[in-house]
Amino acid sequence: MPYRFHTRCVETSNDKLQAMYDRKRPITFRTAQRKIGQAHLNEVFPFYAPGPLTLATDPYVEYSRSWFDGRPCINIEHSRIDHIFLKPPD
Length: 90
Known about the structure:
Elements: E1 4-8, H1 14-23, E2 25-26, H2 29-36, H3 38-44, E3 62-68, E4 71-78, E5 81-86
Antiparallel strand pairs: 1-5, 2-3, 3-4, 4-5
């Protein structure tokens, strides 16, 4: 199942964020896209839809994988705001 948007850094606790940062590993846009799905990325980041700049080509967006609140996550850092996507429970 694809990862789904859960929260932003400004909407959660510092303890949860720090634990996520401690375990984060960089990934590529393609990995994030594969795990989340392009349609869901378009929902969360609609301003990229008209182009020409996209999530894939924006040099200021970073992607990582980690754990958040005990679940695997993908973090997309856009404009210094963490957008946290969680893997659904099995």
